[in-house]
Amino acid sequence: MKKRFLLLWMLPLSLFAQQKNVVQYVNPLIGTQRMGHTFPGAAVPFGMVQLSPDTDTLPYEMNGKYNPDVYKYCAGYQYDDKTIVGFSHTHFSGTGHSDLGDFLVMPTAGALQLNPGVATDTKTGFRSAFSHANEKAEAGYYKVKLDDDNITAELTATTRTGFHQYTFPKTNDAHIILDLMHGIYNYEDKNVWTFVRVENDTLVTGYRQTAGWARTRTVYFAMTFSKPFKEYGCKDFGKKQVYRGFWGKFNQTKNFPDLAGRQLRMFFNFNTEEGEKIKMKMALSSVSTEGALLNLRTEAPNWDFEQTKAAAQAAWNNELAKISIEASEAEKQNFYTALYHAFLGPTVYMDVDRKYKGLDQNIHTAANFTNYTTFSLWDTYRALHPFFNIIQPARNGDMVNSMLAHYDQSVLKMLPIWSHYNNDNWCMSGYHSVSVIADAIIKGNTSFDAVHALDACVTTASHSNYEGIGSYVEKGFIPAEKLGTSASTTLEYAYDDWSIAQAAKKLGRTDIYEAFSKRAGNYKNIFDPSVGFMRARNEDGSFKNNFDALSTNGQGFIEGNTWNYSFFVPQDPEGLINLMGGKKKFSARLDSLFTMYLPDKYFAETEDITRDGIIGTYIHGNEPAHHVAYLYNFAGQPWKTQERIRMILKHQYKPAPDGLGGNDDCGQMSAWYLFSTLGFYPVAPGATVYQLGSPAINKAVLQLENKNSFTVEAINQSDKNVYVQKVLLNGKQLEQPTITHEDIMKGGTLTFYMTDKPKKQ
């Protein structure tokens, strides 16, 4: 009787455990083919290390010119490739430009080769053929068989350490190559300097400094082997230096422990038995090799690979289980992989003792917050950071603190534009850190000094010599003569200024609120009523000639055309509707956006836009129009928002390697999917209102950090039933297709009743 009772008691627990094991639905290979630019390797949530395979070594430039083929390798890995050159420790997820690829490691057997060779003939170098049939990618774990030398590679990670496990055949010629030349978006002079110390027969430390997207980036490492190497060596592939001092006294190519140069590759030799596993751990630091060693010994103190893998996957389960869903198996793969991609970054940027190298190149301590980097803000302010304000508010508060630390260390006194590794690479337009900060302030997520944050926003937005801000303030628009992206940047500044105004209003700063509310109306200054579109203006106030509404090139817009950018007024949809002639004409314009055809020639010169991410003339594979499908709500046609959202979800997201229609852009594409699948979206971050769409799952429960839970139900939801008949919030029917941030954070239930017929009244 007791035994039977025990079994009955255990049954729901086992079902509960199975429900919480959501790692099984994550497929890191989604987005690794074509335009997604994701990586399949091992990382923990928001981890500093992203240990992943790189499948080629294309240079950033050829014959002094940009090599467009390198664009495919922003994440180091392309699914269609047949070879792997090694496993490097740092990667961006989903970006349209790149850097990193630090400290590539490759196990080999047989004759030693220190060149990667070419993909068409793996025998020319240390690269190896591989097959997807012998590849496994999971959250926190990656495994592949390297066919050329019959070596199985397995990878896992902690926050700051990459853990390798290589299973070798029997040989007296086993090698582990450490390629210190390798990099993503690499070029001949990118490595400024590299230093290596062989401390003993299992421990190696060092650093390298690079000058790429991040102009001044130094990464330190500590690398240790589970087995002593029998010998080691180095080859310097760099140009002959004019002055080399008196180091010629030593043979630095073999068993020499003090190495330095610009283009180094090292090898470590072993004897192995059949099936013997050699393990290797590499920890990173921005501060010192001492910091890297501390990270290594703190986070990965033993050689138990399976234990480290289990800990990584437990960390993922803990984060991913913050949302539980009822959906099809395919939709669970889509959902939890999107959540996984959303939680890859921004990335932790400090050692376990909380030290990090700052923008001023000095060492700082993040005493009261976790310091983060990898802020792709032109992308992520739209949905990723608003998503964090619901699901990861503590982390998002720390991210704002990190932005403020960047500002405090900046000699220019500017918040980050696009920052990584104590550098601002100044990529893209706008000053969207102000949107992230304002959204946090408006939603009450202020584990930072909100007054200082508002001052930083105002100072950043007042930098008259940055990207046309002076002209923008003086004229109300940026002249085309001043900036190639004058029209889109004017629109972006106007939105950012509105978000500053909202934060100022919340904090009682009426002067700032009034000044920036006025600036937020500058979008009207580039609307040309004669053509009905946003249009670049000249210094004298005239509109720029040779207008082409479809072209993404030379029209004053960045990575988009005016068909998409003319809807970029998230702060004032009602005002935009009036400019465009009222709700009827506005809705017809939206219809055309989604249905008319955009010929390839109009985006041929814009590599971030491809056919994969285009629906009609709407470009979902790039970010500027991500809010646009929700604008039908403002035009009084919410059923069209519902229809378009479900169409975009089906068209742009699927559980396959080519399952993303564009760059995931550090989680923005995934965050759009997450919000839209749940049935609501932040059209204007900096406001507390979310627009309702059409939920694509049966049920979701959001476990909030304040201990409340928010449930979304979609009754009768299906691929056919995409229209919303009615919506109840805690049993009370909503009159408008909106909910507020407070509604979510208080907890409760949002119930959609779905049908196959649009409700037009």
Automatic annotation (TrEMBL):
Keyword Calcium: yes
GO molecular function, one term: peptide-N4-(N-acetyl-beta-glucosaminyl)asparagine amidase activity
One Gene Ontology term, aspect cellular component: cytosol
Protein name: Alpha-1,2-mannosidase
Domain Glycosyl hydrolase family positions: 292-755
Signal sequence bounds: 1-17
Swiss-Prot/TrEMBL keywords: Calcium, Signal
Cofactor(s) required, per the database record: Ca(2+)
InterPro entries linked to this entry: 6-hairpin_glycosidase_sf, GH-type_carb-bd, GH92_a_mannosidase_put, GH92_N, Glyco_hydro_92, PNGase
Domain of life (superkingdom): Bacteria
GO biological process: carbohydrate metabolic process; glycoprotein catabolic process
Domain Glycosyl hydrolase family 92 N-terminal, first and last residues per copy: 25-285
Subunit structure of this chain's protein: Monomer.
Presence of keyword Acetylation: no
